[in-house]
Amino acid sequence: MSTRLAKQGRLIDRSKKVTFTFNGNSMQGYEGDTLASALLANDQMMVGRSFKYHRPRGVVASGAEEPNALVGLGQGNRFEPNQRATTTELFNGLTAVSQNHWPNLEYDIGAVNTALARFLPAGFYYKTFIHPKPFWKHVYEPFIRQSAGLGKAPDKDSRDADTYEHFYAFTDVLVIGGGVAGLQAAKTAAGSGAKVLLIEQTAHWGGRAPVDGGDVDGMPVDKFVEQLVSELETMGNVTMRNRCMGAGVYDHGYVLGYERLSDHAPGTQGPRHRLWRIRAKQVVTATGAIERPLSFAGNDVPGVMLASAMRDYVVNWGVTPGERVIVATNNDDAYRTGIILKQAGVDVLRVVDARPTAGPLAEEARALGIRVDPGKAIAKVKGGKRVKKVAICNQEGIGGAREEVECDAVAMSGGWSPVVHLWSHCGGKLIWDEAQAHFRPDPSRPPLGANGEGFVLAAGSSNGPLALPEVLTNADAAGKAAAKAAGFKPKSTKAPKGESMSEAAMEPVWLMPANAEIGLRMKSWLDFQNDVKVSDVQLAAREGYESVEHTKRYTTLGMATDQGKLSNINGLAILADALDAEIPKVGTTTFRPPYTPISMGAIGGEARGEVFQPIRRTPMHDWHDKNGADWEPVGHWRRTYAYVRPGESVHDAVNREVKNTRENLGLLDASTLGKLIVKGPDAGKFLDMMYTNMMSTLKVGKCRYGLMCSENGFLIDDGVVARIDEDTWLCHTTTGGAERIHAHMEEWLQTEWWDWKVYVANVTEQYAQVAVVGPNARKVLEKLGGMDVSKDALPFMEWRDGKIGDFDCRAYRISFSGELSFEIAVPASQGQAFWNDLMEAGKEFGVMPYGTECLHILRAEKGFIMIGDETDGTVIPQDLGLHWALSKKKEDYLGKRAHSRTHMADPDRWKLVGLETVDGSVIPDGAYAVGSGVNANGQRNMIGRVTSTYYSANLDRGIAMGLIKHGPDRMGEIVEFPGTDGKTYKAKIVDPIFYDKDGEKQNV
Amino acid sequence: MLTLKCPFTGAMLDETELHCGGEAHRKRFGPGSSDEDFETYMFVRENRKGVHFELWLHAYGIGKWFIAARDTETLEVYGTYPAQTTEPPQDIKDAITAKRPGWSWREFE
To answer: Which member of A538, A726, A728, A851 lies 3.0 to 4.6 Å from A679 by CB, making a disulfide possible if both were Cys?
Structure first.
């Protein structure tokens, strides 16, 4: 059983007990424990089940690489699935639940999959779920969706109770990793005067060194670490952050750091996570190395653990994962585990070493009385929910002639792989190190910065060297090189001198025993989380998968939440062997950020709720809000959809507004419409290029409706243009279009016609604009007094500057409703006062404010198009019957050349028509018109679609516009629109102008 | 997350402040041009691995367009210059030649 030792545990405080629950059972640990160490101390060997076969799984590692010990953490609004127990610091009241089982961890129905494993090989899904075709939708997909996903998603109604923030940092040198190498590199770099930021993912400095031991400059390495940390803490140019992971390295020295501020102490004030957005001149990755598992049958049984993790649990947390332990290895380092266990009083039954000979550490182990078996291998681990015994055989051979030994834990070590993730994220290349059988950074091919020079340096064991002396000299050199590359002069100091026991060479062992028979290979796990075995990768190779990227996707090797930190190299070696190729030829899969999963909250930062996107408000926003506004987002603006009175539905309100505006007087807040000033000697020429119609000939004082196309010919915006003076035009854009069209104009002015003398200014927010609409519009303005707004003084499509009531204003006689209409712009600061005066003066004329839905219905009754309804980026003016707005006089304008392309001139293009339902109902929005016959997919042929559809209170019927093939030639024909409600709507093709066809009402 | 130097102010700009406008030095073909020329102008792009010229807008800043000569493979930036030009300045071309002798990009080399 796994248990707490009486002594040891450098990170725990035995005087401070901590209570937590696992699957509802109350357990105790100490302050300084991780959830994993505390679970092991409580003999909780089994902590979850695997994804595919639901096999019992236990803790296998002690850090970020852990694939098995994933739990659901917290409750309610703080519940989070898939949290690694090995990186979760224990606190009082922690609640954890295990994952991927039903009904519970001990008894799980899904475990039947393991019995079926023979029938669930690699690519099972691809092979099985293809036929019969209808089964996919009705049987396979629901089944797979049911069983997919490891943890439980948080309740959909819960909201994250914590806050998060982003933090911007700029530094000369960023050191990622606070082990001995990172600390030393930071110190050396900082010695040059460079600004250094040092981040470490765990809560502790020093990394593995205090566990693995050795001496530096004559003192034990843990003392050396303490000294280094206190030195760095006093340096003004050094910033240190623990619990802060280097998540990703990106272009030109951009790095994301993920700081977990209060995961270990919930309830602490301030944000829970902080995303560091770092720009560094130089990055030193001192990210250490990760031990590889060995591939032998049953290597996934709870109790089988990485050798390094096992000694971490003993030294750091005073926990032993077993009482009778067997060590399996292909290198000297694992002997340290045997020695440490033995010294802690644990029974170390033997070290099974695949190599024929071992180094001095083996001698030390033997001297302690540990039996060493050279040339031996583990044939099989027996046990279900925990290790019961181990069968030992010769490493050479297929795994026969086994000797069985009873034990309760196995420590395994297949050698070490440098953590090259951060080096690789932005294009750093790797080389294969034959001696240590691992990939390490190729210093001649680092990721390059803006100046074409490398900006990442690897230091310490993440660069290849594993022994303390080399780690320190390597880190010292990296610190100096980084400072120099960042423009500083490093001091000529000596690297600290490390001493550790010399080690004999490791020997690559990719399978144990070397020629294990198929029964063993089918139980030898590579990827613990996704259940990929040696036999799966071999099968993939036999089926023709040669590329490691394809094999990964076919077998799902390395695709779990741990991203193959333990499994990739072993899987790669098995694949290379199966393909009879060399490992470096097969290559690695791509390392992608983040290094371990980071929270969505951290990515979002402060940008949630109201601050996610700022809302733009018109000067009259508050009035609308107080007067029943039903809000509608339009671009970043909020506009009033309708002003709902007590007792009314929104629909009632819209109908009331629609009728009142036609019969009496309506006010619309039109402030959101874009207003761009285009000014300069070449402004007319420029606008002739921007608009399809002629703007340069517009007379001062007059207005013209204009269309804008992209160079590709498609409609992008429309609006009324007014000529203000000889070299000034004011262009109205759509509400959502102001910034876009402003940018569009600037782009053409700066990148194509940069010699034209034109300025463009966006003055949208400088003005409040009110549309005064309806038969009584003139009356209310005359009552307020001021400028002459008579038909003769201010004719249709003209504008005047002047005063209305107390307000300086510009009045445009333009109409988007077909009624007598004035759009009056006043300074934004006067908007509310002007609106108030209009409402007051308008009382006797039946004034009512109206919203955007009324605006839409009024324009649809008149057959006016709306950008975004009648257009969708594929519609040209000709489709909408707007030929009259395409200048024939102009040689050139944006879109003109495109309109002569064959597809644009195709007579079969769908064209705008009005649609009148036969029974007066309203066609559903977005409905398609169907014709005779079916297409290749057996669907009915489409001949058009609805673009705008409304109930018109004025006409008391549904009206719509749509684009129909040959529409204008088919007036009077009936077309069918199948709805998603099962009904088919029949509509007659009619002229799009439903109301006041001759335009008499606006011309009074 | 590139950093580019603003050729107008000399400030180092972060990619989050910028908007990429696609390939630079496109020659406009308007009415009267052949289908082939118009197609090339509208749709055909170099999309090169290696030396490349791109339009960038300092969108969250001074609102100016400029051109970056950079390497899409190594991410090296050879230089930036105002967009108000029809061809790369000589010093930019020299900087590219120093790193990529014999380079060519459309009609430039």
So the answer is: A728
